[in-house]
Amino acid sequence: MNATSPAPAAVELVRVRKEFGSAVGVADVSLKIGQGEFLTLLGPSGCGKSTLLGMIAGFLTPTAGKIVVDGVDITDVEPYRRDIGMVFQSYALFPHMNVFDNIAFGLRMRKLPKADIAVEVRRAIAMMKLEGFEERRVSQLSGGQRQRVALARAIVIRPKVLLLDEPLSALDKNLRAQMQVELSELHRKTGLTTIFVTHDQGEALSLSDRIVVMNRGEVQQVAAPVELYRTPANGFVASFIGEINALPVARYERAGAEAALVLPGAGRLSAAAPAHWDFTHGVEVRAFLRPEHVRPARPGEQGPNILRGVVAAHIYQGSHTITRVEMEGLGLIETRVTGADIVGTHPVGAPIALVFDLGEAVLLAAR
Amino acid sequence: MTRLRSFGFWSLVVAILTYMTLPTLVVLMTSVNPTEILAFPPEGVSFAWYEKALTYPDFQSAFKNGLIVTSLASTAALIVGSAFAWLVYRYSFRGRGVLEAVLWSPLIIPHFTLGFGFLLLGGAFKLQQGYAMIVLAHMVLVMPFVTRAVYVSLAAIDPDLARAAANLGASPFHVLTRIELPLVLPGMAGGWLIAAVLSLTEFTASLYVTGSRTQTLPVAMYNYIREYADPTVSAVSAMLIITTTLIMFIADRAFGLRRVLAIDTH
Ligand SMILES: Nc1ncnc2c1ncn2[C@@H]1O[C@H](COP(=O)(O)OP(=O)(O)OP(=O)(O)O)[C@@H](O)[C@H]1O
Ligand SMILES: [Mg+2]
């Protein structure tokens, strides 16, 4: 509220841990989530996303660690005293109540005067475009409408934090895209601190201020979408976010401003070294390169970083084509080109030369 | 092929139905026999035995006794059984398995044994042949069914509903009263009805624990048939069946009994 003081974190997790018997669901996660931030927990199934949300909401008690919301330690506060809104994957709408009563439930529990409840519920209904559905039973709603009721029910209580556990996963593709837009709009309008869970990286990249990538209960990286895509912190993040070619382990050579990778039996790639490539000369590194940074060479093109292979497959995707090229010593390398011309110019089985833009590669020290 | 198969299927269905309903049909048919013997097939159609059944004082008082016992026993079983089902559903605690086994035991232990046991107990506590003992016996007998009906409908509730309610500010008490109770009410009503029907028609245990003043309808019928062999008991049976069928039909309409008994998945 006070512009001069640094904004306190809306949510702070301090070494939060959850064990189920001998299994570790969430391993010592520490995070600070800013006021009004849209933060996404992203990771494969079973990586502990729901467990982490469950602890923030209070359905699960952490084995160790501390959860602070708006400066107050709520680790031991009952879920119904937390003022944290949540949308469940299954929506969990109350089947014996109509839309209005579902949305009004939280306000009734807070013992608001009837007139105020009506006003607030109507506002939420308008915001979620649910006018005319007030009297409907939950069973008479479509998937998208249920989703909106669940959102309205969670925001109407003006929670300190809004938790969304894979709220879009039950929707079909078109509806998902539409609800993504509505979610962003909702976030913009309400300014609610939001923690969103998904295992869909596209969803995460398009919606989030920051993304927390998790694997096996551990945080792999916390970063803004662009940063995450451009500079993944490790191999897991690199291959989990977007498509990426993993090059075999190579020797890193440094000569002044120029860096080079000596690939095993497949030649050499070089580039002006970006500032953060601070590897010592001669160490082994792993390199990752996105398909859009590998392109077919123009006819007669000469120069460094051109390697040869044979077209193995084309995957036509409408606006672009992903072409898989079998390259000696490198395995299958994907290149991404606009349009579908490549299908005609380089049919499957034809030789092809690829230009590697090494300067865009992600280099990680080989373990 | 499919026609043959469907013919085979329906023959089987008819055979099973016949087998299951034949004894009942025989009894029902004898109830309209105009002569004084329990003959099959009947020699005509008459409703004289129905009139006798309705006016026979022993049956009248037995029916009244039955209603008293049934309503008390089923209601008590509903309260205790629901509470138990809720405990098992909500919490895991030590001794839960033992409690569960004890609760299901009336399904395994013969009614005869239970009735005899209650008779001995009644003697010890000077309660023999009183309503209290009969109600207690019936309550134990119907408890597994009530508990099961309530438990099934509790288990069918999405556990996220309780979490969602808590998340919206509902205390455990409000989760119970605003979410779980309304959702389980059809199950409770269904459980109560099953209990009522079972209790109303229970014979074996009742034979031990009732006395001439407190006998229930099945016991009165048994005593009647030991002295007279006319179709009055058939008429009573017929009326009992019709009444139960009607109650079940109404209950199905009102509470979706089929869903409660998990006969239907939807
Ligand atoms: N109640 C529980 N008892 C035992 N293990 C559990 C329990 N809940 C979760 N786990 C385990 O903890 C890990 C994290 O589970 P969690 O549900 O948080 O995963 P998730 O990231 O939400 O996955 P998904 O994307 O499939 O929903 C999993 O390995 C899971 O098997
Ligand atoms: Mg999950």
UniProtKB/TrEMBL annotation, chain A:
Domain ABC transporter: 11-241
Class of enzymatic activity (EC top level): translocase
Function: Part of the ABC transporter complex PotABCD involved in spermidine/putrescine import. Responsible for energy coupling to the transport system.
Alphabetized GO MF terms: ATP binding
Enzyme Commission number(s) from the entry: 7.6.2.11
Encoding gene (name): potA
Record InterPro entries: AAA+_ATPase, ABC_SmlMolc_Importer, ABC_transporter-like_ATP-bd, ABC_transporter-like_CS, Mo/tungstate-bd_C_term_dom, P-loop_NTPase, PotA-like, Transp-assoc_OB_typ2
Keyword Nuclease applies: no
Catalytic activity: ATP + H2O + polyamine-[polyamine-binding protein]Side 1 = ADP + phosphate + polyamineSide 2 + [polyamine-binding protein]Side 1
Record family assignment: Belongs to the ABC transporter superfamily. Spermidine/putrescine importer (TC 3.A.1.11.1) family.
Keyword Translocase among record annotations: yes
Self-association state and partner proteins as the record states: The complex is composed of two ATP-binding proteins (PotA), two transmembrane proteins (PotB and PotC) and a solute-binding protein (PotD).
A Pfam cross-reference name: ABC_tran
Keywords assigned: ATP-binding, Cell membrane, Membrane, Nucleotide-binding, Translocase, Transport
Native source organism of the sequence: Ancylobacter polymorphus
Protein name from the UniProt record: Spermidine/putrescine import ATP-binding protein PotA
UniProtKB/TrEMBL annotation, chain B:
InterPro entries: MetI-like, MetI-like_sf
Location relative to the cell: Cell inner membrane; Cell membrane
The keyword Transmembrane helix appears for this protein: yes
Keyword terms: Cell inner membrane, Cell membrane, Membrane, Transmembrane, Transmembrane helix, Transport
Record domain ABC transmembrane type-1: where: 63-251
Membrane topology: Multi-pass membrane protein
TM spans (from-to): 7-32, 67-89, 101-125, 131-151, 183-208, 228-251
Family: Belongs to the binding-protein-dependent transport system permease family.
The name this protein goes by in its record: Spermidine/putrescine transport system permease protein
Species, as recorded: Ancylobacter polymorphus
